[in-house]
Amino acid sequence: MYTTLVSVALFAATAITGALAGFAISTPQFTQCQEATFSWEKTVGPYHVVVVKADDPCGDPVIDLGEIDKTSISWPVKLPGNTKVQLYVEDSGDSEAWSGVIEVHKSDDASCVSADTFKDFGLTPPTSSAAHSSTFVVAPTPSSTSTQVVTEPQNSGLVPIGAANAGNNPFSSSGTRTMHQISAPILAICALFAAFVLVL
């Protein structure tokens, strides 16, 4: 019964968005954190481009790509795999274009998808252990005969593009929400300092 209701909802959403479309837009293939290119018919620019959930096309955008002057865009898909979305484009004359339903394919790379975006789809974000790390090679001292490899985790700095950023460069990783990661050594130092204050 639930599957039937979902199918009916998706069909109705597709029919509604298709009826509202004023010009055509391509329906690209999306793979999590891989670059995708899509385009639309030239009308009156600039164009406002957003990504919405396929089962709630009239709800809040999942990602707002801002104002685009051209009629195509290449974008790293900052969406979790196994989800369904649609593209919505509005030109300066208030005409609309809707893509078909796009299923986002899963990949091994989830570094570009923010925790908030996972939560928007009701999904659990990957653990912090999946974060990328940078490797630095330390040259050996004269008394050493081997090379030491030091791995240091770092913040990817990737965040979703919010509606407040409309007009920003869609390729920029800046946004209204920022994820801050505090390393374990800093947390340990803060804990020791707090303990010292309590003793005093």
UniProtKB/TrEMBL annotation:
Top-rank lineage group of the source organism: Eukaryota
Signal peptide boundaries: 1-21
Transmembrane segments: 182-199
Keywords, sorted A to Z: Membrane, Signal, Transmembrane, Transmembrane helix
Protein name from the UniProt record: Uncharacterized protein
Organism, as annotated: Amanita thiersii Skay4041
Native organism taxonomy: Eukaryota, Fungi, Dikarya, Basidiomycota, Agaricomycotina
